[in-house]
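Hey, I'm writing a tutorial for new members on how sequence and structure tokens pair up, and I'd like a real worked example in the thread rather than a made-up one. If someone can provide the structure for the chain below, I'll link this post from the tutorial.
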Amino acid sequence: MSFKTLLAYQKGFDLAMEIFLISKRFPKSEKFSLTSQIIRSSRAVCSVIAEGYRKRQYEKHFKSKMSDADSENSETQLWLEFALACEYISNEEKRKLENKSEEIGKLINYMMFNPEKFGVKK
């Protein structure tokens, strides 16, 4: 089984791409701050899930990576707050993106607390 089959990865990838497309509207002055940070954190969710899945033979490492993915997901939510406060996205866009992020967080937490369902040996 590939990390690409994981629902958390798939939804995380979709959200990262959606954020990337929306961030193209941000002002050029934000290129090296908000834009790069929100793109980096949203993409990191997927990359850390992939890393953790490859290390699933080690329960502690798997759980640690899922915790890192959850942290990156929370950071993405923070950057969405800034994007809204700076009026780069609407309330509706933020709500939609945040709902997707919360769903991803639930999936990541399920993986973290049920590692045996993802091939982790105890």
